[in-house]
Amino acid sequence: MPFLARPRKTHLLYAPFLFSLRPTHTRAFTKNVISITTATTSPEAYQNLGFLLRNCKTIDQLKQIHSLTIQKGLALDVSVYSKIISLCSTSRGGDMEYARHVFDKMLEPNVFLWNTMIKGYSRINCPNDAVSLYKEMLEKNVKPDNYTFPFLLKGFNRDISVECGKGIHGHICKFGFDCNEFVQHSMIHVYCLCGLINMARKVFDTSAKGDVIIWNTMISGHNKTGQFQESRKLFDEMEEKQVLPSLVTLVSVLSGCSELKDLDYGKRVHQYVKDGRIESNLTLNNSLINMYAACGQMNVALGIFCDMKDRDVISWTTIIKGFVSIGQVDQAREYFDLMPQRDSISWTAMIDGYLKMNQFKDVLLLFREMQAANVKPDGFTIVSILGACANLGALELGEWVRAYTEKYKIENDVYVGNSLINMYFKCGEVEKARMMFHKMPRKDKFTWTAMIVGLAINGHGREALNMFAYMLDALETPDEITYIGVLGACTHSGLVNEGRSFFISMTTKHGIEPNVVHYGCMVDLLGRAGQIKEAYKVIKDMPMKPNTIVWGALLGACRVHKDVEMAEKAAKQLLQLEPENGAVYVLLCNIYAACKKWDNLRDLRNIIMQRGIKKTPGCSLIEINGSVHEFVSGDKSHPQCQAIYLKLEEMTEDLKLAGYLPNTSEVFLDIGEEEKENAVNRHSEKLAIAFGLMSSSPGTVIRIVKNLRMCVDCHHVAKLLSKIYERKLIVRDRTRFHHFRQGSCSCKDYW
DNA sequence: TTAGGGTTAG
């Protein structure tokens, strides 16, 4: 600041400073500045200084006056220091370093100044500095007053609340401020921050509760910890005590209603607006839309949306989310296309809609549009995209997404990490999933569960169970889905006794009552191990009505172990639940064919024809150079169709040279043997393999995702091909992975 | 003190 070096030319150097003042102040300021520059330490100079300080509006003005007083050797009194410190601490462009500098020059700052400094640190979100200053204050025997604690606690974040919250509470009691309403309010805020909701509630319950803000804080605290019922109870209590809720109260309570999908209560809150007791604004209207949308009342939500004077991007996104939640993704898209502007949240809401409806290709298409629109994806978007990659088995794209998050420094939190683990497993990349897991700085229940499930479906049952043991060591609590993974690990590796004992311990050790899916796992476990009667007994004894998963598991076991009698029982039950389920007929046909029950097969085929039952077409996906190609059985729609069929012929020749005989035992069409061979030969996974072989360089892994179970013939062919062409083939079918290498499969032919 | 988005199975 050159003017400090040349004080005599003050009138010129101060020019920019003077221009920044409002016109009404200009004359007085000019006069006073000049009088300071000309006078010495006369009483008049001090008077002028007081005037200047009272009227200065910005930190810059203040600093200039301060430097001037130093120049002139004016001794400052406490009121001047106070003015400097409070302006630096509390104004918008404040300067805490400057405030601290001045503060440290003071011999015995009073409690007001300590408080002001603490308030300043809280305002700039430096709670650690505020706490050290508070400690310093105590060391210098300055007693805190009723302002100290609210100022101190206002700036607390979660970390420091956990670290010092309780200690500060002790001080509050010691200094006798535990009954001060403002202090109580701050305490509730801090306890809510660190999740100690019961402590917050204790403070709240002893407070006078006269002010609506304290109610709002408590309701918001309950919301943050997911205790929405408690929020509603408090709202009831407010009505009883005739405390008029504010707009904020209604927004918070509505948020709870949305979570609980409690339409009746939501309507009661809405009544406050309808009766004119609370005047609505944009936020409240958005909350109302969200509540009605969450409760599936899209017509009401749209009614409010249409009546609103102003709508923002949140209003639009809430409508989109509403349609997505009731599965009307096309309606959601209509509104999405109409939006005047979209941010990353709106894009993600729409992308997520496609993901929830299993429209994975639309997910990727919309993601490309999002990039073309120059909207930067964030962690939430990445999670959705990785979900689509996982479902499509699109490893290349998944890898690209990972590189993208690293390059653009998208927050790589536990959600993104979990999604990456899941994506790698669903693409059969076990090693990369493991690496991801070890790299994650924070792991949660979902991380462990993703590992257990992923290892299990990829055939590493033992490792999955070890992972479960580590999870318990890490004091992470398993949930019902973790146990589905654990039981699946036992099933896929044939660990029957372990499975039985886990089924018992999930209740005895973790209080998780098995649901219908867990019973399905047990039926699968026992059935695949050949204990079909025991499996049937599980179904008979289970406390709920068995569903299609349970009977389907039994039917699958009957196929593996060729148990016609039990298969018929299971199929009958399945068809009662889902008369149009083509897969059941197919499986039963497979079993009749495999057991050479030709009469039964013929009868069943007739029934299929009469009822017009359609089989779900087999469909295989393969990703080549970042594009996903889809094949159905006998597909001729691919642009490179001719070359694919040529490759298929070449493949068949090579297979026959290696001693391959087609296995048509699972073909139940009423056609000749040659046609059966033809049909088997055109299964979707064989077309995908042929395409993979011709489109990728030697030695690369071929990955395929199939919607149905692999047939015996395709499984056999894949094993042979892995040896003939020295290629690793990974096929993900409906329930598990097959890693084909050197002529054998990771499933040990047990699927 | 307030409104819109994400992870595990079948």
TrEMBL record:
Keywords: Repeat
PPR repeats: 110-144, 211-245, 312-342, 343-377, 413-443, 444-478, 515-545
Pfam families reported for this sequence: DYW_deaminase, E_motif, Eplus_motif, PPR, PPR_1, PPR_2
Span of domain DYW: 659-751
Lineage top rank: taxon: Eukaryota
InterPro entries according to UniProt: DYW_dom, E2_motif, E_motif, PPR_At4g14850-like_plant, PPR_rpt, TPR-like_helical_dom_sf
Family, per entry: Belongs to the PPR family. PCMP-H subfamily.
Alphabetical list of PANTHER family matching this protein: DYW DOMAIN-CONTAINING PROTEIN (PTHR47926:SF492), PENTATRICOPEPTIDE REPEAT-CONTAINING PROTEIN (PTHR47926)
Protein name: DYW domain-containing protein
